Amino acid sequence: MYQAIPYRSGGRPWLRPEAAAAAAVVKVETASARSREEEEAAAAAEVRRAVAESPVLVVGRRGCCLIHVVKRLLQGLGVNPAVHEVAGEAALARVVPAGGEAAALPAVFVGGKLLGGLDRLMAVHISGELVPILKKAGALWL
Q: Is residue 11 domain-resident?
């Protein structure tokens, strides 16, 4: 059974004076900016660790359908890639070395190096260069 929320007619405690409200907003924005930076740094560290541990890693946004496409292409070749989902591209930007080529998500790392996004993966596959790259990385034994 549902319980009714009591109604108070006197005063509105949720309303604050403008100065107090502005100060509260600034504190919340500062705290959220710090936590966002810390989250991005933690996500970048996780991606770096996953790149170092996996011969083939697919990094993509949460809920992105293109991760499935990349994964199915690699599984069709006999490779079982690790998949790491991130909230945004900021984590990937911190993993790619300075001056290195950035890749759109989903990004594919083979042998600890960035191969590229889906378009680059497809181009390498069509040209016939993908299987030797996977063999060299130790992801494919045939």
A: no
Q: What are phi and psi of 47, to 5 degrees?
A: -65, -45
Count other C-beta atoms under 10 Å from residue 4's C-beta. Answer: 5
Contact (Cβ atoms closer than 8 angstroms) between residue 83 and residue 60: yes
Instruction: Give Cβ neighbours of residue 56 (< 8 Å, ≥ 6 apart).
Output: 74, 79, 80, 81, 82, 108, 109, 110, 134, 137, 139
Taking alpha carbons only, the member of 142, 82, 69, 89 closest to residue 109 is 82
pLDDT tens, residue by residue, 86-113: 876 666 666 665 556 666 788 899 998 9
* pLDDT bracket for residue 28 (50, 70, 90): very low
Structural domain for 133, as ranges? 18-137
Q: What spatial distance separates the first Cα and last Cα of the chain, rounded to whole Å?
A: 64
Token representation of residue 95: 């993993």
The total of structural domains in the chain comes to: 1
Which long-range contacts (C-beta less than 8 Å, at least 24 apart) are formed by 120-129?
Answer: 121/70, 121/73, 122/73, 125/73, 125/77
Q: Indicate whether this model's pTM tops 0.85.
A: no
